[in-house]
Fold these 3 entries.
Entry 1:
Amino acid sequence: MRISIFIISLFISVAGFCQQENDTIKRKESYGIRIGADISKPIISFLDSDKKGFELTGDVRFLRNYYAAVELGFEDVISTEDYMKFTTKGSFIKVGVNYNAYQNWKGMTNEIYFGGRYGFSFFNQTLNSYTPNIKGTYFEAILLEPNTEFKDLSAHWLEFVVGMKVETFKNLYLGTQISIKKIINTKEPTNFKNLYIPGFNRVFLNDMGIGFNYSISYLIPIVKKNK
């Protein structure tokens, strides 16, 4: 589903570029605050009742090709692994910088960018149920439901991001972003690993992770400068 969303965004982006050719060449470049939201999370929440969450995004252009960026949100996710089912609930925030590598025509403010993020999350984990791994014995596995909650957990990580933003209408942008993540520090409960972290998503081997968002945002112009 996420791949489909990404492909759709590329078609929309191409349409946005074509529109810009005729009506933005003589405009000045806008510097301001851009505020938006990840619209893929509400879609996923609607399609999958085990995944609820939202994410707000924002950035500020402080140099011609540099943007200070922030992303924050909340997640409530039920995950099912081979022998366990658990709930993760908590908030996150990510801050960093994007560099726009796309050479715009005069007046355009589209982006094809890469950048970095520092992420932090604080959350709770609840072990809803688990089945002891007793394969190879004569005993039948019994589903246990302890509903044990682990509170005050946290995680810190770094991200490398690649994405694009296209102005489809005046000051209104559609964007996509892919991120590769690496945990640098995490607080875990005894005998239970943090397999899912809000803002980080699923934790893979070597504490690595990947992420994706599809955003819509609006630029609030503050100043306009000639290119």
Entry 2:
Amino acid sequence: MPEGRYRLSIRESFAASHCLRHYQGKCENLHGHNFEVEVAVEGTELDPKIEFLMDFKELRTRLKEAVAPFDHAHLNEVAPFDLQNPSSENLARHIYERLAPTLPDHVTLVAVSVSEKPGQTATYYPG
């Protein structure tokens, strides 16, 4: 097989409300979004039989499990956002931390992006 890296990305969405504590503006009030989450994974080894890095369906299932506690919830009442501000940045980091350990050993989670609406995206990737 040719050498190189492979990157897969998928998107999933969930609906939730939140209040940004200490914002001192409209977003400190209760409001909701249809959040869009995009994850990117990478690896160098393809499955020798099927010749793919990871099944998109399997990756989507794992992402759905990572965001399930947030869907149709008030984020300020769901851990860890009962203590942390439920900003897109914190959501991206938290989803990253939930998803990364569930991936096969040969697959690395590169980044998680969270959008509250089109044109506004926060991305987390480890430093």
Entry 3:
Amino acid sequence: MLCGSWVMVVYRSFHRLAYTLRTDDIDFAVEVARNCETDIPEILRKLEYLPLMDLDGLEKFIKGTFSIEFLVHRQGGKDAPYVPVKKMKIRALPLPFMSMLYLDPITVDLQGFSIRIPGVETLFLHKLIVAQRRIKESKKLKDLDQCKSLIPVIDAQKLAAIASTQQFSKNTKAAILKSVEAIGYSAFL
């Protein structure tokens, strides 16, 4: 599933959002339990992406200024620097709250390709949470800017229904409130 900032480009083409992309990395969320056997590195090599492994063993794929990274849900505290996804022959970065993105996914057809992306409300809620967990202020502001851009197309009832399916800690609830206050989204307060 395409996730991260590039989803905003897809939303922009369907919802006429005002958003300017400011990233060269392309993130894909991977469901470890999904029954999919695909040699992702081979597919990316055919597209002229080169594998690059960091010191912790996490693998990215690079082509020019673009990099592709795979992400999986991390449960609880700190995990290993990567999770091997053997069926896809990749190593994915474990991050908290990634499973949320699968709650209401949509599939869009774009220039002859079917692309699975998170629903608008799901990505919005995810970004509200992760923004407050960012170490770099610039990434936090980018997350909040994305949320602000999504406000015109958010269905408040759908957002509330999605949020009600989650069990958030007190800290996570506080993060959500801090983010909605920062972007002026009073419908969720």
